[in-house]
Amino acid sequence: MIGIDVGGANLKVVDDGGAHIHYCPLWAEAPLADLLSAYAGRGENAAVVMSGELADSFACKAEGIRFIVDAVREQFPDALFYGTDGRFHDGPVPELAAANWLASADWLRERHPSAVLLDVGSTTADIIPLGQFDDLLGLTDLLRLQKGYLVYTGMLRTNVATILRAAEINGIFTPVSTEYFACSADANLVLGQIDAADYTSATPDGGAVTMEAALRRLARVVCSDLEEIGEEAARGIAIQFCAAQQGMILRAVGECMQRSGAQEVVCAGIGATLFTEILGSVNLNRDLGGMADALPACAVREVARRTASS
Hints:
Layout: E1 2-6, E2 10-15, E3 18-23, H1 32-37, E4 46-50, H2 61-75, E5 80-82, E6 88-89, H3 100-108, E7 115-120, E8 125-129, H4 133-136, H5 141-147, E9 150-151, E10 166-169, E11 172-175, H6 184-190, H7 211-220, H8 226-229, H9 231-260, E12 264-268, H10 272-279, E13 282-283, H11 284-287, H12 295-309
């Protein structure tokens, strides 16, 4: 059995060899079935979760679900798909939309029953009270946004201007441009919170993944060249952005803990190390041998195994 998580930007696969993450932007007609072919033909079945059905290449979620199911079944004809009802399905049903977070909760709820799971990925932050699994069943992303269980910002793909509306530049309060000039990956790279190998998404300008290139993109956020404001000011934009982004996520975690009565936080995703340091919490990457970067894929695999043996 292998676990597969089909997101809008990344395909994540967990097998006996570990976690494998492929940049796979569905809005750009990425070759999902071709990427999966490398894992087919080994006599294994697949347990699958998804969130990529929301990609704007699809007219609606139902179309996205059908596309993903068909692409997976091209390589794994007997694949099982986990839904927001906490059940496995063998075809495209509405419950498959954005169920990847629930698979994580389903697997971890007995291991960490008094915890809030914080899974900070490239694009979003999932905040899940693991001790309230029955109340999580049936939640759509719309409902999770409304409840504070989904904060739509992540370590790589967030447009800096969606969070930072103004920055202090050389002591002057400066509104930012709302163009897509720089992303959270640029800010995190500049501050050493990710390295170049972690920067797996496309850069906003199609340019290089280097410190200088990231600083230049950050300078454009205030309609400037890097030489115009200097490296210190560009780095300051990164600091101000990350402080605002982390504040959003931490407020949501605190509110979730207060409402749920949770006693601890466990962290997963590409942001696990950063937020573990901030919160003094449990880093699931250490517990899972690095596979928490692909937690839903790991989780759906284990939930499928548990279901098959029960």
